[in-house]
Amino acid sequence: MRYGKLAPWLFITPTVLGLVFFRIGPIIAAFLASFTSWNVFSPPQWIGASNYVELFNSGTFWMILRNTLVFSLIYVLGVMVCGLFLAILVNNRIRAITFFRGLYYLPVITSTVAIGVVWSWILSPRFGVLPNVLADLGVHNLPSFLGDSRYALLTLVVVYIWKMSGYHMILFLAGLQNIPEEYYEAAKIDGATRWQSLRHITLPLLSSTTFFIGIIALIQSLQSFDITMAMTEGGPNYASATLSFFTYINAFVHFRMGYASAMSFVLLVIVGIITFINFYARKYWVETVD
Amino acid sequence: MKTYGKIALYILLIFVGSLTVFPFLWMVATSFKTMGEVFRIPPSFTSSTLFTERMWDNYRVVLYEHSFLRYVLNSVIVAGSAALGQLFTCSLGGFAFARMKFRGKNIVFGTLLATMMIPVEVTIIPEYLMMLNLGWYNTYFPLIVPSMLVGSFGTFLFRGFFENIPSSIEEAAFIDGANPWQMFYKVFFPNAKPVSASLIIIAFMNNWNDLLRPVIYLESNRLYTATMGLMQFKGAYGAQWHLLLAASVVSVIPLIIVYISLQKYFVSGMLTSGSKG
What we know:
The complex is a heterodimer.
Chain A: H1 6-33, E1 36-37, E2 45-46, H2 50-56, H3 59-90, H4 97-109, H5 112-123, H6 129-136, H7 152-177, H8 181-189, H9 194-205, H10 207-221, H11 225-231, H12 243-253, H13 257-285
Antiparallel strand pairs in A: 1-2
Chain B: H1 3-31, H2 35-38, H3 57-65, H4 68-99, H5 105-114, H6 120-134, H7 141-149, H8 152-163, H9 167-175, H10 180-188, H11 193-209, H12 212-217, H13 226-236, H14 241-261, H15 263-273
Helix pairs in contact in B: 1-14, 3-14, 4-7, 4-8, 4-11, 4-13, 4-14, 11-15, 13-14
């Protein structure tokens, strides 16, 4: 203990304060609040499990939950396929490759609101560039991508995949670069095609990376507030609203703090289950080099 | 690689690159158009204002009449202070977790790890009520303080870095009579420049782009961040695409400049972090 007893605690004071006031404290408070009726302006009233009962009996809630599931599923598959494709594409030692890596990463650093604005404009019915290009190619009578309740959610998730693929590219790239070059050389000598190398060397050895990225993507997909807010505000008629957006609406538009807290706890339980699966399934699922 | 293969690869790289870059180009192209040109069919990349004295009209309107100049400066203040605060918290915490032995270390570190993935939607409601009670509604404190005190990713980044510094350096400084603060500030921290740069940039970016907290905490227009200003502008002037897209350009340009000049720190930081937060 060469640093003494006091110094370590002084060093972690900011971290501990942050944990107490912005993580642990709020989680406990949110849990308690989920059993109250509370509109901020008057004191909370204890109503037991009523919020949860109301939640599970609400048709809107189940629709939102289904939207969340659809969003997550498409998002996870989308960013993993696109991310891996981009990573393989930029995992070449050729001139200007860092330029392309940087370029593909650009949407990741751009604010979701700005991305939402420009894509809303590109997809805008009649005057948007995409409907016009498609019309030139002979595709007419397109639905309104963001205004039609059948397509709004799908449009959101596709735009979000476009924005986030670069992020998953970087994660996959790190995984790819950990695979020893000799494996590919040996396969080449044995006459393996590029597809066979991908199928039998890259994918198996990438499994721990893939699993990790899947978990990250899943958790990202549950926090889709920004893209929803920026493009559809949950509309039309909640068709594109997901759990994180619906929690926001109930808390900060309807000021139903207790109800929204119950909802956020459903989200927390889902994230908890995913993290738990990640922790335990990892060692069974993952193949390693040895 | 064979020449044909190389050419094919470049064609593919450029094709994918154009899918990435097109929305940005379209953003810029639209931002120079006049109201009438925006609604012209078929849409075109060029506009009549290019290289005339009316070229920057939309930007003038957005920056001065709609206060985006102010919003951008606000964002610099908010994101800059949050990033510096996070640097302070995370470097100290990372140092303690990496080099010091103390009772309760595993509990605190475990808590940091376990709460890393907790969605902000869960903690934001109690946080909001706390901010109301502190009288911090409609100030920058709720945008800066939580983000500067909670940085799981940054703490991991620094912990990993400080763990790999050989202990011989530490021994020498101890023999010279360094106290814990001097050990951190004079010996360890000066070595951590790349890590610090990564953390500052990523924290700056996350705070620049944050939407939820500005939406719920900021009421006065004059306090808006660039992202919040854009959101509000979209609601109020939704059909004026030429102005809206100029505002988008204004709100993303500062970050893109930072990104281009410090690219390697962005990517290495993201690699180490695996997730934002």
